[in-house]
Amino acid sequence: MDSARVATTEEIAASLVNARIARRPLDAFPGPMPASLEEAYRTQEAAIARWRDDITGWKIGLVAPEMRARLGSDRIAGPIFACDVRIAKAGETAHFPVFVGGFAAVEGEFVFRMGADASEGKADWTDVEAMALVGAVHIGVETAGSPLRAINDLGSTVVVSDFGNNFGVVLGPEIANWRQRLNDIEVSTVIEGKIVGTGVATGLPGGPIAGLRFLLAHLATRGRRLRKGQIVSSGAVTGVHDILAGQTATISFAGCGSIVCQAVPA
To answer: I need a labelling partner for 36 at 20 to 30 A (CA). Which of 80, 156, 178, 186 fits?
Structure first.
């Protein structure tokens, strides 16, 4: 591509996807950074069209507080692909890939598993309506990842463009009686024996259900909807914590279990 010509949305999406496929780090965003979330989601849709795997769910992330008014949202979304979902087994370490030279992080999260299809085109949801769609809630870890090392520093529109900075989910066991317990479960993240973050679900703006309501409405604007069996990673409870290939993280959910996972080169 002529360096003097501005890259198109399709070309930016192709560069991001090709870097992921080749496991090749990117030193810079491959074109003008999107000025709005609408523009960023157009890039994401173009990238999804190029990715050869089925969407098995969606991740939810937070927009930095100082950017929310300008971007018109406190959350963003990105696809989770079927090949990137790993099941945590008791007593075992789950291995997940990271882009060496790119960005990698672990995020302790509550993961919704949908028990019913969302209504097509419905963009206004109450907490009760959103919760009625949920079949189960699991403990989980979002394994954030991108070939672009500086992705989080470049802001939410860049994050959205590259699949929401998602490289998978490690899915743990279901939480019993989650409707009564969810907001009070304490979560901690330890990397290489050091506590790097703690939190509870109510640390997320409006809690995880507010995130689910956001996602239901957001997908409706894109002509998409949540389907029965899909998962939703509802947002980082203890924060976003960088991790390197070879390092091990333990994410513990009080009274619900722990997930031990190790980063390996993609």
So the answer is: 80
The predicted model scores a pTM of 0.95
Q: What is the pLDDT of residues 125-149, one digit of tens each?
A: 999 999 999 999 999 999 999 999 9
pLDDT digit string, tens, across residues 36-75: 999 999 999 999 999 999 999 999 999 999 999 999 999 9
CA distance 99 to 221: 31
Crossing angle between the packed helical segments 9-22 and 37-50, to the nearest 10 degrees: 50
Q: Are 102 and 20 in contact (CB under 8 A)?
A: no
Residue 2 has pLDDT above 60, yes or no: no
Listed residue (90, 106, 148) closest to 247, CA to CA: 106
Residue ranges per domain, the chain? 9-265
For the chain, how many residues are written? 266
Q: What burial letters (b/e) apply to 127-164, b meaning 16+ CB within 10 Å? A: eeebbebbeebbbbbbbbbbbbbebbebbbbbbbbbbb
Q: Which amino acid belongs to residue 231? A: I
Average pLDDT, the chain: 96
Phi-psi label, residue 98: left if phi above 0, alpha if psi -120 to 50, beta otherwise: beta
Mean pLDDT across 217-225? 97
- Residue 242 has phi, psi (to 5 degrees) of -60, 145
Tell me the backbone φ, ψ of residue 27, rounded to 5 degrees. -80, -20
CATH number for 9-265: choose from 3.40.50.1110, 3.40.470.10, 3.90.850.10, 3.50.30.80. 3.90.850.10
